[in-house]
Design a protein that fits this description.
By secondary structure, the chain is of the alpha+beta class. It has one domain (36-219). It is 32% helix and 28% strand. The strands form 2 sheets. The protein has a 6-stranded antiparallel sheet with strand order 1-2-3-4-7-8, with helices on one face. The longest helix has 61 residues, at 7-67. The protein is elongated, with a radius of gyration of 28 Å. Residues 167-178 and 205-217 have low confidence and may be disordered.
Length: 220
């Protein structure tokens, strides 16, 4: 003889089944959220790594420009600082900033700003003298790169090796041209907090986030 389930037993079975479904849904949701979080972290790490590739490109090009006797700025042909006597760093989205893309990594773009300590109107070495003689032959290169919303930047300090510097004479179509060739040596570097996009140059100058959040200088 078959045993018939009462309405009470059927209700209990339904409740148990519903509880089982809810618990399984919570577990699956938690697993899905964890997987998505890990994927996001992996993407952020990959973007961060690509940013540092862009920074390496920016530093290498800026160094080559400086050693050739030029200003060393990359991707800043139309950018001008609004505070010549304060350190104001450009950022992505500023007028005059034209980031340079990497051909092999089109989602990465970079730019660099170079400043010569002896003529930048700042007391870079902290001796109380602006553009003092001790700052001669020293340069700072500020390099930034962006990838998928991630922005990273560094400051690198360079010193001119005057023993290896040279002046070359080139002749192009009968015109003699004297060209100064510098040799720069890397002294130290540190990672910078990227300037905040959308803030005015005056706001950046009044709030020294570019230096106060930076890590200590590391010597190569």
């Amino acid at each position: 003889m078959k045993k018939r389930c009462t309405r009470g037993e059927q209700g209990v079975a339904l409740v148990v089944a519903m509880c089982f479904i809810v618990v399984c849904g919570i577990i699956l949701s938690a697993l899905s959220a964890r997987v998505m979080n890990q994927v996001r972290h992996v993407d952020q790490f990959a973007s961060l790594k690509k940013c540092f590739y862009g920074i390496e490109f920016a530093v290498a090009q800026s160094l080559a420009e400086l050693e050739a006797g030029r200003d060393g700025s990359i991707g800043l042909d139309g950018w001008e600082t609004a505070s010549p006597r304060q350190l104001v760093l450009p950022c992505f989205g500023d007028a005059g900033v034209a980031p340079v893309p990497i051909r092999s990594m089109p989602d990465v773009a970079y730019f660099a700003l170079a400043r010569e300590w002896s003529v930048d109107g700042l007391d870079n070495n902290g001796d109380g003298i602006v553009d003092g003689p001790e700052e001669g032959g020293l340069y700072s290169v500020y390099a930034f790169a962006q990838c998928k919303g991630q922005v990273r930047g560094i400051e690198m300090v360079l010193r001119e090796d005057r023993r290896r510097g040279a002046t070359t004479d080139t002749h192009i179509e009968g015109l003699a041209k004297r060209q100064v060739v510098r040799h720069l040596r890397r002294l130290s570097w540190r990672e910078l907090a990227p300037p905040r996009v959308g803030r005015s140059q005056e706001g950046r100058a009044n709030n020294e986030t570019e230096t106060s959040e930076a890590s200590p200088l590391e010597t190569d």
